[in-house]
Amino acid sequence: MEVIYMSFPLPETCSGFLYEVMPGDTMYDIAKKFGVDLRTLIRSNPQVDDPDVIYPGQIICIPEQSEAVREYHMSSSPSPRIVLPNHGPINVTRPDNRLLPMLFDLFAGPKSELTLTLQEHNHHMHYMVFEPKEVGPYLEAIGDTDMHHMHELGQIILKMGYEIPYEYPCDSGWKYWSSDHVYVGTGLRDRLQSDIEIKRAGVDAYNKILAMNPEQSIRDVIIHIRDEELLHIDVLNKLIRKYA
Q1: Cα dihedral: 233, 194, 101, 226 (round 10)
Q2: pLDDT over 60 at 158, yes or no
Q3: Where would I find the H helices in 130-185?
Q4: Is the distance from CB of 243 to CB of 188 less than 8 angstroms?
């Protein structure tokens, strides 16, 4: 099924954490879930044109004012992941050697989830200190999600009976991942465009894996990761338009 993302404005600032609206969510339900006053939740999200009508995929700010919010915040991560609803358990029933070179490359190649995780957290640390500081929480959230992608890819590789690699296939054989793959960048647009470029390469690679018709459990994970990368690309493009 093709996933179509609507374009929504991002919160200007957020004193709590970012939350992605899920199917069936209402502002009332979200306020109740996190123990936040409904009027406070609405005031914290002026980018939402009509609080009575919100859509899956919108990113809203949950103001940190209650114990429920603090518990969710701490149990998720310092900045909760920008994610889609989770897939089912990873149950690999047989090795599929066709997929291994691509899985290794996506795990620890030059344009891999490992590279993205370290690159985005590097950029996040930069924007904790320098302007625009509003960008930092988004990059932390996306980097945390890419770290989770690494875990999911690693689980597939392990369940196929192989060890976790930090090598990737290339024309001359195999190479170890290098920190040289992490792009520090010279400005906001430059840094975010680099993240987008790697994510687009990843989306292409995930689509190639899907075209090879892997077993259903692997397929579900790959679709999930690919669609989260598409969501991240959308968020990064919005950050460029707003701040760069």
Answers
A1: 0
A2: yes
A3: 135-159
A4: yes
Residue 44 DSSP symbol: T
Alpha-carbon span 18 to 16, nearest angstrom: 7
Q: Assess whether pLDDT exceeds 50 at residue 121.
A: yes
Q: At what angle do helices 100-108 and 113-129 cross, to 10 degrees?
A: 20
Q: Where are the chain's structural domains?
A: 17-76, 100-243
Q: Partners of 60 in the beta sheet? A: 19
Give the integer Cα–Cα distance in Å for 51 and 99. Answer: 45
Q: How many CA atoms lie within 13 A of 167 on its CB side?
A: 10
- Superfamily of domain 17-76 in the CATH hierarchy: LysM domain (3.10.350.10)
CATH class of 100-243: mainly alpha
Q: Alpha carbon of 107 to those of 6, 176, 202, 208: distances in Å?
A: 29, 12, 10, 15
Element (H, E) at 173: strand 173-176
For the record, the structure tokens of 132 come out as: 């625009």
Is the pLDDT reported for residue 170 higher than 70? yes
Q: Measured between alpha carbons, how far is 41 from 50 in angstroms, rounded to an integer?
A: 13
| CA angle (71, 121, 84) in 5-degree steps | 55
Neighbour count for residue 212 (Cβ, 10 Å): 13
**Extended strands (E) in 63-105:** none
Tell which wins on pLDDT, 42 or 5: 42
